[in-house]
Amino acid sequence: MSQNSSSLSQLALQKFKQDFLGVFSFWFIVLVGVISVFAYAFAPDNSQHANQMHLAIHSKKPGFKVQMLILPSSIENNQSFIDKLFFGKKNTETEIPISTYQITGETLFYTEYASDGLEGAEKSIHLSNFQGVNASSLIQEKTFLFGTDKYGRDLLSRILVGARISFFIGFVAVFISLVIGIFMGSIAGYFGGKVDAFIMWIINVTWSIPTLLLVIAITLALGKGFWQVFIAVGLTMWVEVARVVRGQIISVKEMQYVTAARALGFNDFRIITKHILPNIMAPVIVISAANFAAAILIESGLSFLGIGAQPPMASWGAMIKDHYNYIILGKPYLALIPGLCIMSLVMAFMLIGNALRDALDVKS
């Protein structure tokens, strides 16, 4: 007769699977993670940072279509497949939005696209300059599903590539906060006394400084940039983890299995890492999910202030900053779409945090 395992981990997993919002949020986060890693494989504009600009078609509505004249370049692109997949293609081609074109012999006549009812400039190129290239292949129709931003860049591509920053800042920030927070909280809670008082003083001083102000100070000290923001956010989130770990260790360090480990002669490092920490990780996991959401919001705020990820990197917060004034100019989607992306990802992490809290609650 088969026996069902009643281990706490399996019971928690079963409870988590019964939470629809938690499971849905988990798979949504997995989807965003896959998009973040392989953003350039999904983005219509796979140039680096999805930064292909066409000022003639700026601020177009979702679903906008235009004919694009693509002129090959004599510059060779020696990028590897892996480099293109993860860092985008170094665009050597020239793309020109056009409204009409005509091929006469070896000459291609075209009219550049002009918005607001204006007439574009008429130009021509000699097809003999592009030997071995079919004339019809130079003209492609492009559809911008989310429209274009104020620089004429594909908004959908910028959203997909921008997901990478918002998603990975959560991982890096939470990893840094866990490493520092678990270390400091473990020492304070296990040894107590003056060590605990000193570490709690550091925690209270760090806690008293407004998070955004501290992140700005660290960012200015380290410099503006991609990794600097990740490190700055992580260095401000460890205090919550440290307080939780300290409180949990204080409550369990006098329990019988810890006393037995001491009686067997195990050193303090082994007792903390092998016996205490595995039994107090449930609240740490829950607070880590909340820190994911907080890190995304902090990064978005920094990008909105202009000290986050720097142009031309795509960032949801920077996209809101560039287009928030369009809300009153009849094109609110330029700011609302990245705003909804931030909201949905933060909501997913908060829901999965609530689901993990309920699943890991041994009293329920």
Automatic annotation (TrEMBL):
It is found in: Cell membrane. Gene3D superfamilies: MetI-like. InterPro entries: BP-dependent_transpt_permease (IPR050366), MetI-like (IPR000515), MetI-like_sf (IPR035906), OppC_N (IPR025966). It is a multi-pass membrane protein. Coiled coil: none annotated. CDD domains: TM_PBP2 (cd06261). GO terms for cellular component: plasma membrane. Keywords: Cell membrane, Membrane, Transmembrane, Transmembrane helix, Transport. The chain crosses the membrane at residues 20-43, 165-191, 198-220, 226-245, 276-298, 333-356. It comes from the Bacteria. One of its GO terms (biological process) is transmembrane transport. Belongs to the binding-protein-dependent transport system permease family. This is Peptide/nickel transport system permease protein. Pfam families: BPD_transp_1 (PF00528), OppC_N (PF12911).
